[in-house]
Write a structure and sequence with these properties.
Elements: H1 8-19, H2 23-26, H3 32-44, H4 49-55, H5 61-77, H6 79-92
């Protein structure tokens, strides 16, 4: 709960606005946007994996954990992706 600085909808809106896609597109199966949303919700909200999974189309808590892990690895490898996430986080502030 100490992390709960943002609401999930704020994060989804920020991603949607940055990429100029709909809210549904952000949460669409297999979209990199969804993985970004999962990553940011884990980092910036007090939501559990189960809660995030429900929001993202009934994913299991373990699927949310795996998506988070994969996206974290991608961030470490991809400088352009890291820049996008930083820009979106700055828009939230």
């Amino acid at each position: 709960e100490l992390q709960a600085g943002y609401e999930s909808e704020e994060i989804i809106e920020a991603i949607s606005g940055y990429f100029t896609v709909s809210r549904d597109d952000v949460l669409k199966d297999r979209a990199q946007w969804r993985n970004m949303a999962i990553y940011l919700m884990k980092k910036l909200t007090g939501m559990t994996n189960g809660q995030i999974g429900q929001l993202c189309g009934d994913l299991s808590y373990s699927a949310v954990a795996k998506a988070y892990q994969r996206f974290s690895v991608d961030l470490g490898r991809d400088k352009a992706l890291r820049k996008k996430v930083e820009t979106i986080r700055a828009k939230l502030s």
